């Protein structure tokens, strides 16, 4: 039994859980003293590729390119095409379209009622779309192409290494 | 004014959106292990293929008319639905997503400057959805949501309206309601339709003219609201913040009949993980867990087509000592419940889960005697969800789950997930 002069009301007694301890900062708000960080007003959000490539998120689709028909327009097999369906298609746009159910990426050219799809690789022939005969549907306009840089093959690597070696040898000879 | 925008045969239209070969030919979407029809194109409807028809019933039609089959690709439909709903904000500010293929819009006079008529707004919405998503829609404009539903149905049934129906003047509304069958009305179920018909009310116009007090007695306040809505006074408003669900249920059938407890337990674990994911998505926690198990009710004894095979079904509800949304908390209770109802010797078709007593996550009460999950444990679930969103479903799973699943759904005609998976993009040549 412990006698106390001022008994502590039971409501004021509770078990302290050391696990629940919260570190409280010394100052909850900073006090401006001295010079403010001059860069603070210039901090912006980090750049995001989505903002660059996508204007209409609801109408944008990603499509994978295959084949080499558009290689002169920097569309390689495996490139990801960013296709926007909200942009109106004009003559000269690169489009993703279906001709009789086959999906292709080509340059769109309309003269009068004739629609022609041009490849950019001269080894391929244009596709002539016969309205009323062929089933023609468009997905949209290609607004960006995402590709990985080309890899050098062994020959290209060897040539480069050889180039550096010969250059060094010439330099060495000159110094002598 | 309200508008209801609705995608025509949503699932089939989504498939056509990425595969024009399916245009103009009969197409059906199959659900439930490719067993039954869950969506039909107009061409398939004309062939007489019924909603919910089993595949074996329509096999002859499929062969005769070369009907194209699609397994349900919910990843694609869900994403297209989200695009569809989000696109509506380009036209109006108040949008209520009502189902996967329907949205209600609140169309006010302030849009008059941009679009001189409702017809014009409707055409603009229709053309934009067609160009952006390649989905055909029907739009009904009317002073109330119920009438907008009616207008939408009229737009759908009458191809000469080109997908848009505006019900503004009273005479138009009168004729529309006159021709509208009572059982097609939004909010009138089978039983009420029967009762109304017995009392001489067969079309929507008669219901509109019915006496309010008489309706209140039988059809409660919901019926009164319906009558007011038909009279052109909005009684159902736009709900842009849907209430969290009060029950969550997951019960897909197995791909084939499964007799053994090991596989059923594995399926249960996966379904339970889905349930917990759904709970966390709406920031809720649950306490009541119901597990049920049953055999295929339509199955006949092998070799005796006249005799139904032996059937078994059972269920068990468990009340957890605390609320949670963590799989690790539910799993032991789920497995013991399953073990207690499992009977050896039956080929099972389905194990299902229902979660009840759902409350918001911040209503959580710490248990006194039970070890309720700590905030960190609840947070863990959200972290797992984040990982699974980023690295694909089932990137993180419980170690007791199997990788090779015997019970999994059959989807033999699945299209690519064009919009949600980098490995399944559309390929252009």
Automatic annotation (TrEMBL), chain A:
It comes from Spirosoma aureum. This is DNA repair protein. The lineage of its organism: Bacteria, Pseudomonadati, Bacteroidota, Cytophagia, Cytophagales. Coiled coil: none annotated. Pfam families: Peptidase_S24. Residues 25-143 form the Peptidase S24/S26A/S26B/S26C domain. It comes from the Bacteria.
Automatic annotation (TrEMBL), chain B:
This is Y-family DNA polymerase. Belongs to the DNA polymerase type-Y family. SUPFAM superfamilies: DNA/RNA polymerases. GO terms for cellular component: cytosol. GO terms for molecular function: damaged DNA binding; DNA-directed DNA polymerase activity. Residues 2-189 form the UmuC domain. Coiled coil: none annotated. It comes from Spirosoma aureum. InterPro entries: DNA/RNA_pol_sf, DNA_pol_Y-fam_little_finger, DNA_polymerase-Y, DUF4113, Rev_trsase/Diguanyl_cyclase, UmuC. It comes from the Bacteria. Keywords: DNA damage, DNA repair, SOS mutagenesis, SOS response. PROSITE patterns: UMUC. One of its GO terms (biological process) is error-prone translesion synthesis.
């Amino acid at each position: 039994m412990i006698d106390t002069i001022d008994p502590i009301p039971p409501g004021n007694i509770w078990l302290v859980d050391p696990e629940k301890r919260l570190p409280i900062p010394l100052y909850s708000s900073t006090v401006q003293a001295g010079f403010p960080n001059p860069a603070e007003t210039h901090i912006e959000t980090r750049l995001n590729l989505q903002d660059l490539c996508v204007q209409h998120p609801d109408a944008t689709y990603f499509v994978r390119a295959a084949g080499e028909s558009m290689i002169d327009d920097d569309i390689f097999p495996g490139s990801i095409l960013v296709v926007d369906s909200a942009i109106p298609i004009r003559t000269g746009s690169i489009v993703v379209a279906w001709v009789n159910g086959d999906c292709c990426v080509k340059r769109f050219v309309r003269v009068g009622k004739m629609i022609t799809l041009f490849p950019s690789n001269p080894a391929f022939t244009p596709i002539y779309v016969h309205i009323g005969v062929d089933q023609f549907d468009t997905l949209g306009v290609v607004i960006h192409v995402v590709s990985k840089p080309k890899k050098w093959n062994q020959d290209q690597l060897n040539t480069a290494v050889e180039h550096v070696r010969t250059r060094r040898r010439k330099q060495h000879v000159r110094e002598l | 004014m309200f508008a209801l925008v609705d995608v025509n045969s949503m699932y089939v239209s989504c498939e056509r959106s990425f595969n024009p070969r399916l245009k103009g030919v009969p197409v059906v979407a199959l659900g439930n292990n490719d067993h039954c029809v869950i969506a039909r194109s107009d061409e398939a409807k004309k062939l007489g293929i019924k909603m919910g028809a089993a595949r074996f019933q329509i096999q002859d039609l499929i062969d005769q008319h070369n009907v194209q089959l699609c397994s349900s690709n919910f990843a694609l439909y869900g994403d297209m639905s989200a695009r569809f709903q989000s696109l509506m904000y380009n036209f109006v500010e108040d949008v209520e997503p009502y189902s996967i293929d329907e949205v209600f819009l609140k169309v006010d006079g302030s849009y008059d400057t941009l679009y001189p008529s409702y017809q014009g707004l409707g055409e603009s919405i229709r053309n934009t959805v067609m160009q952006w998503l390649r989905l055909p829609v029907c739009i009904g404009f009317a002073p109330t949501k119920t009438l907008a539903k009616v207008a939408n149905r009229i737009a759908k049934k009458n191809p000469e309206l080109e997908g848009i129906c505006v019900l503004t003047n009273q005479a138009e509304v009168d004729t529309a309601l006159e021709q509208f069958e009572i059982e097609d009305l939004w909010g009138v179920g089978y039983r009420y339709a029967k009762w109304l018909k017995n009392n001489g009310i067969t079309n929507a116009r008669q219901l509109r003219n019915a006496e309010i007090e008489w309706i209140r007695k039988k059809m409660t306040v919901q019926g009164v609201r319906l009558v007011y809505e038909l009279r052109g006074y909005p009684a159902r408003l736009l709900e842009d913040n849907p209430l969290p669900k009060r029950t969550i249920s997951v019960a897909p059938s197995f791909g084939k009949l499964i007799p053994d407890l090991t596989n059923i337990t594995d399926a249960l674990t996966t379904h339970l993980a889905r349930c917990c994911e759904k709970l966390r998505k709406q920031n809720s926690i649950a306490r009541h867990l119901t597990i049920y198990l049953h055999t295929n009710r339509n199955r006949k004894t092998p070799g005796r087509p006249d005799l139904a095979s032996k059937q078994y079904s059972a269920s068990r509800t468990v009340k957890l000592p605390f609320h949670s949304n963590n799989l690790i908390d539910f799993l032991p209770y789920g497995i013991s419940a399953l073990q207690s109802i499992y009977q050896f010797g039956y080929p099972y078709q389905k194990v299902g889960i229902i979660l009840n007593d759902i409350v918001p996550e911040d209503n959580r009460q710490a248990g006194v005697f039970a070890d309720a999950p700590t905030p960190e444990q609840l947070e863990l679930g959200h972290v797992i969800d984040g990982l699974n969103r980023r690295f694909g479903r089932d990137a993180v799973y419980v170690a007791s789950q199997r990788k090779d699943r015997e019970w999994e759904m059959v989807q033999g005609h699945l299209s690519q997930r064009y919009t949600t998976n980098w490995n399944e993009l559309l390929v252009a040549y």
